[in-house]
Amino acid sequence: MAGPKPASSQKASTSSLQPVEALWKSYNENTSSRLKLIDAFLLFIMLSGISQFIYCIVVTNYPFNAFLAGFSSSVGQFVLTASLRSQVNPLNRSQFKEVSPERAFADFALGSIVLHFFVFNFLG
Asked: pTM of the entire structure?
């Protein structure tokens, strides 16, 4: 029968979690609710693309153009949303001096419309 774990392994696991906990605490304290909403959308898009890819591998990829359209839509929307996040982040204001948050959102909306127009046409 195995005895209790040595104290050194418990300290190692605790110390390996400390940077993650510090990162999470800093994220919650220093990130605005607008950026958290964008991050949640980015997570949703990423999980959607991963689930499409897993479905393609495990179940079927028929029709293949539908898989390509859906997956490229996820990737394209992720890129557009990541660009929006970088443009509306107050810490990046010095890099995007001439782009207001409203202009960044308008670019995001127009890019999303164009992306989904091409995706819809690719479906056939």
From this structure: 0.81
Question: pLDDT by residue (tens digit) across 40-82?
Answer: 999 999 999 999 999 999 998 788 888 899 999 999 999 999 9
Burial class (CB in 10 A: 0-12, 13-18, 19+), 3: exposed
- Token couple for 95: 């890099």
